[in-house]
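Hey everyone, long-time lurker, first post.

I ran two proteins through the pipeline my lab uses and got sequence/structure pairs for each. Pasting them in order. The first:
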Amino acid sequence: MSEKGERIFCGSLSFSFSYATTINENKKRFVLRFARFTLPLHNQTLSESEMKDSILILSGGVDSTTLLYDEQERIALAISFDYGSKHNAREIPFARLHCERLGIKHITIPLDFMTKYFVSSLLEGGEEIPEGHYADENMKSTVVPFRNGIMLSIAVGIAESNGLKYVMMANHGGDHTIYPDCTPEFVDAFDQAAASGTFVNVHLRSPYTNMTKGDIARRGKALGIDYSETWSCYKGGNHHCGKCGTCVERKEAFAEAGVEDRTVYEE
């Protein structure tokens, strides 16, 4: 038996390990002894007990930006997805801004196939974004089928590739009435699927699942987040429209939490 050491690079993260090889009938058996991760962004080596263990799906909106600050000590990587929504170009720069500010690695993954094969008013080329409250029936047109499931699946694969144990998303209680892949039932089912389908048993953490958006804004206020550096409006114009479901919800949440709303609205 011989023992060797190597460093593996997975994207922008790397880790070192030692392995032992045993040759038996021309077959090699590798025994991995994972030692430590290196996060180049911080230029430091972390032991397993100290290592950041999570990936966050970060849109650049109110909820995921709050979770970024709330869980910053655990987040090794934040991922934004450019899936062809009408507001991706407005929100992703804010996601990048906050990650740079906190010193957290950020990447953007394109999912351009969604605009080709999925139907939703939220996507480029779709029908007009409806106006009104999320409780209104017409808001269902903004659902992108299984969007969270697709993004989470990619994040779980990246987590396992980098030895990370958790994927986080910032769904909340107000999402439940309209988005099937934001419900507690979905969170539980996906968590079980991710753990069962990975060697390192990746788990989904969704700490805001049973909170309101007002609760989240209240938490962000305590964290000192400047919400003018986030984006919500589904229309993706130069300013928030103030009339679509997510703009209405943004206004209500800030009012409930006592957050000064410095958002520029077109209305």
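...and the second, right after it:
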Amino acid sequence: MRKENGRAMRSTERKQPRQARAQQTVGAILEATVQILDREGLDAATTTRIAEVAGVSIGSVYQYFSHRDAILRALQDREFERTLAMMQRVLGDAHLGEEPVKVVAAVLRGLAELYLKSPGLHRVLAIEGLRVAKAEHVHAFDLRAIDTVRHFLSASKARVRRRNAGLSGAVTRRGSSSS
């Protein structure tokens, strides 16, 4: 056991889903959590309620997640990946010749779309996300987001001082992690 916020917590390392059915179970647990957060809020998102909405036993929840924070951590990681995928798509090489204003607008639209798909989840992650996320995961997200923006700014025809490309990436990343 480890201690977190003065409480004894079981390790968050659990069995990884390998087979399709196990992956579906984990997906159902994550989606049930999102539904509860969107409709009922964080206080309602107990592991018992999550199991009920997911249509799985509480034992299945604990087979893959040691506690609710582990589920929130998995959702945070999933949202990091979705955000990075959107940024890489919008800021990719195919868009280097576009007007910077249009590209920035597309990034902002993409962030808004991610938020609007699950506003309850994003409200919770804005408040709880950094508490439950592992620091190295947040740092890795930061670096990947900054690198994506830096690459776009350096490779595009945008009129940005090349030495400010890293700073621009950091500013953009700050906006994306609060969504």
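Reply from user beta_strand_b:
Welcome! Quick read of the second one: The chain has a mean pLDDT of 84. Strands lie at 2-4, 7-9.
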